[in-house]
Amino acid sequence: MLTTPQVELIQNSFTAAVTARDDLVTDFYQTLFLKAPSVRGMFKEDISDQSEKLAAILQLAVQKLGDLEALVGPLHALGAQHVEYGAEPGHYTAVAETLVECLARAVGPDWTEDHAAAWNNAFTFIAQTMLDGADMAAPRQ
Ligand code: HEM
């Protein structure tokens, strides 16, 4: 589902994005809460710990994209945990769109449609795998 050139585009653009903006995840949460204010209450008031955890999991996912099988177990567990947080399928779309928007903003003029397509593929896989894990933990009716 992800070609080798797409994995490289993702890895290189992630490095470029975090180099350009060390506050990438802060920008992500600010943008998400503007776009989808209803999710603000799901998070703690102080999201600095949360920001570090998101940055760490993104870093791990980006490193392992060449070996998607290795990500399935951890993403199932993360998706199951998200049932308890109240995350619903529609929220994943908002999260993925916001992450792509913030990455594009951080990368700047070097961002292309190929970057968008590669990242969208990656987030489709991540969200679908997390939702599969959520279904295994608490099957939807
Ligand atoms: C790309 C998909 C996502 C990834 C990679 C991700 C990643 C994470 C990680 C790593 C944590 C910390 C878990 C821990 O404490 O060990 C977390 C917590 C959380 N996530 Fe997500 N998440 C994603 C999607 C979502 C969605 C769609 C929602 C729904 C709005 C959401 C809401 C939350 C909440 C409410 C917490 C707990 C925050 C707190 O304790 O204050 N996440 N997420």
UniProtKB/TrEMBL annotation:
PROSITE patterns: GLOBIN. Gene3D superfamilies: Globins. Residues 1-135 form the Globin domain. InterPro entries: Globin, Globin-like_sf, Globin/Proto. Pfam families: Globin (PF00042). Keywords: Heme, Iron, Metal-binding, Oxygen transport, Transport. SUPFAM superfamilies: Globin-like (SSF46458). GO terms for molecular function: FAD binding; heme binding; metal ion binding; nitric oxide dioxygenase NAD(P)H activity; oxygen binding; oxygen carrier activity. GO terms for biological process: cellular response to nitrosative stress; nitric oxide catabolic process. Belongs to the globin family. PANTHER family: FLAVOHEMOPROTEIN. This is Globin domain-containing protein. It comes from Marivita cryptomonadis.
